[in-house]
Prior knowledge:
The complex is a heterodimer of chains A (434) and B (468).
Chain A: E1 8-9, E2 19-21, H1 23-29, H2 45-52, H3 55-61, E3 67-69, H4 72-80, E4 87-89, H5 91-97, E5 102-107, H6 118-130, E6 135-139, H7 142-154, E7 158-164, H8 165-170, H9 172-180, E8 184-188, H10 194-202, H11 208-222, E9 225-228, H12 233-253, E10 259-263, H13 267-279, E11 287-293, H14 298-301, E12 303-307, E13 318-322, H15 344-351, E14 355-360, H16 362-376, H17 382-401, E15 406-411, H18 420-428
Helix pairs in contact in A: 1-13, 3-12, 4-6, 5-16, 6-7, 6-12, 7-9, 10-11, 12-13, 16-17
Chain B: H1 2-22, E1 30-31, E2 41-43, H2 67-70, H3 73-80, E3 85-87, H4 90-96, E4 104-106, H5 108-114, E5 119-124, H6 135-147, E6 152-157, H7 161-173, E7 176-182, H8 183-188, H9 190-198, E8 202-206, H10 221-229, H11 237-250, E9 255-257, H12 264-283, E10 290-294, H13 299-313, E11 321-327, E12 338-343, E13 352-357, H14 379-386, E14 391-395, H15 397-410, H16 417-436, E15 441-446, H17 455-461
Parallel strand pairs in B: 5-15, 6-7, 6-9, 7-8, 10-11, 10-15, 11-14
Antiparallel strand pairs in B: 1-4, 2-3, 4-5, 12-13
Amino acid sequence: MVEARVHKIILPTSDLPKAWLNPIPVLAKLKKELPKPKNPVKADRIAEMEKYWAPSLLAIERSDSAEIQIPTAVMNLLIWAGRPTPLQRAYILEKALNTPAKIFYKREDIQYGTTGKTNIAIPQAYYAAKDGFKRLVAAGGAQWGTAASIAARYQDLKLDVYMPKESLESKEPHRIVMEVNAAKVHGSPSQDTEVGKLMAKEDPNGSIATAFSEGVEDASKDGAAVIFGNFFNAPVVFQSVAGLEASAQCKMAGVYPDVVIGSIEGFLGLALPFLADVAEGKKSGTRFIVAGSKYVPSLTEGKVDYDFPDYAGLMPLYRFHTLGSKRTIPLIHAGEMRYHGVSPILSALVEAGVVTPKTYGQTELYEAGALFCRNQGVIPSHEAQYAIKAVVDEAQQAKSEGKEKVILFNLSGHTMLEHKGYLEWIIQKKLELP
Amino acid sequence: MESKEEKKIEKAKQVFEAAKEKFEPKSVIRVDLPEDELPTSWYNINADLHKCGMRTPFPTGPGLAVLPKIFPPSLLSQELSHDRWIKIPDELLEYYKIWRPTPLHRAKRLEEFLRTPCRIYYKQEYVSPPGSHKPNTAIAQAYFNKRDGYEGLATETGAGQWGSALSFSGALTGLKVDVFMVKVSYYQKPGRRVLMESWGARCVPSPSVPPERVYPDMVTEFAKKVLEKDPNSPGSLGIAISEAIEHALKKPYPINYSLGSVLNHVLMHQTIVGLEAKKQFELIDEYPDVVFGCVGGGSNYSGFSFPFTKDKLDGKKPDLRLVAAEAEACPRFTKPKYIGYDTGDTAGLTPMIWMYTLGHDFVPSRIHAGGLRYHGNAPQLCTLVYKKVHEVVAFHQTEIFQAGEILSQTEGFFSAPETLHAWAALIREARRCKETGEKKVLAINDSGHGWLDIRGYDEYLKKKLEVA
């Protein structure tokens, strides 16, 4: 006889969170003011935002209220695309690591877009449609484009996607998904915008930052709305649904995490409610780890200063950990992390010492990814590997300390739409970059 | 023991009632089944099949003698059993719980798009880590082989779905997996091979010899023979099966053979899908009028439909319709060469089984739904089709990708080309009901996602599907 164990903690669809959590008041309670964006010397970039942001989204971006109600229509669509997602216990991995740690992971990978990005895309498309927009411009990585294409179809909006040119080539299946969903896909820097033509000479592979610039130019032209999958506050607000669910599920399981872990890309949404608990003094001693690439070491080696979120400087200046907006970003496989900085909120949290950054090289990530998939089944996306590597390290530490700690992490996506990295790992054995 | 069982039933009832209160059938989008409601037995249709007026003719031929050498005793006894319910071991349930129960989803946006009065529900089998229904039997086969003392499994794979499922299952249960992958797919779809190897399996192109065959203990005589005749052979599923069986018979270590469809025990393992779906329909007070699935070897469709078929055979649901969808390019049900005994592989190593067949040397054209390119079908399903308990329809691949585009744009998910055959059948029925105004409940097994076979969609968009 084996003991019957609960592997997945399922939140009923009727218990989907009714409101998102806003990170700004959380930050304020941690005695950390979020620095306001600034204009560069020559242009009023802050006023220009109104040209390419949907008003409702800009209101959320600038909101100070602790919670923001989720409209019923959005709740239904979130359920559509796979929410609430299960919280799963990694029993087999724990056994393989022989660790006393209890490892829980949030299954953001089972959603329709293969990642948690639909959490952000669905509300943005909804608000843009409500504000009367007919066309969206998505600027970001391949996963973001795929999520945006699903969300745009839900609202019957036209969609142009700007994503790094290199990702377009190495992650072709994403392009096909977007095209089936009637989106027009541009590899940035493209020849389709003026700023793209200029950037193509300097950074032909492109990055998330070049996609941002092109998205802004394209949308400003004829009154479309740009939607962003990272960096800004609004995406963090929308992503908080994952953390709120996880928080409820932890209660159902009768546990509270000692460590919360995510990759730069998937951390904040999951961690926010737990950060709020710390900010409100309900909990102390919870540790937060955000994992990034050693080839894009924005949090560990970047300087905290005002910089442009985009390559060409078409947006206001924000204060965050940056490697410089004109930096050529190495071709790491985690396409959503090919960006010169992190969101100002994450930056402030790291600066305040609440969140600890870690960086990894690619080979160790794939080894961690293989360990995970050979025990828990799901082959993680390149981004999710970062979190897993940090989890494995924590679990091993727990073993050497003999501590029974609870680890929670975000399995932000799986790799079925992008396996070039795994190909290089297994067949060509060339993962480390010069 | 008795009272413990009763307590369990009592608890289950409470969970059901609590869940029922939360649901309003008309507005429900997704029906989740709690983990402790996971079925604990498989349904074996052998116990009820005779009610259709016929028993499946017994397999025959020299291949029968091979079976005990390549299958473990526990699976062989399941293959021949006539017990209606076969208990799922507790350890195996633990593995199932990694992804099961899978959700039952209402396709309301599709309904709105089609303007149909029907209510459409689909079972999301794509949520398993390898992305299809295949691990339902793969993990069971791996588990029983391990329990009976074997250390590995040999298998063949065409497009790679079955090989992936078995590699995943081998990784979880601690069993080695040796996959012979049809050579042309091996090089066309490196992504699939990479997934299998990420799960720790060994995957080689079939046919091949060293140095191309990198693992010396996986060399086979049959591959040498094939390559002597045709050094440029692109391989076929038949050759790969023969290689895998030879490898399993040679036993470089205690290794068996594993098949992903057709056999009785494989279909039985898949009934967990239909059993879950029945419970989920019960939760929302619905019962399907028409059940859809696609057929290659028959396992996903049978697994979903057999628990419902039982009600029809028992006379409880005489009007229930069960519709299997196949590819026009491989029409063993709609245009069979003959109905009778044929072998399951090209070389003729397997027993002769009774089925609808296109002939074991039939070579279907290279449609994208690789999983439907099989010359025969499961004998149990063939019997039910023969006695007209189940219906069959066939589709051309352009129509199925149209269905795929509609699905992606309304519901937001990507189904495998195989699964799209079932969706095409469902959409046709939903449109017919729009004309007649019938408010039917349509249920479909969404057997797998299409993310790894996405090129077919690309060719559809570029209108390149009509070649050959």
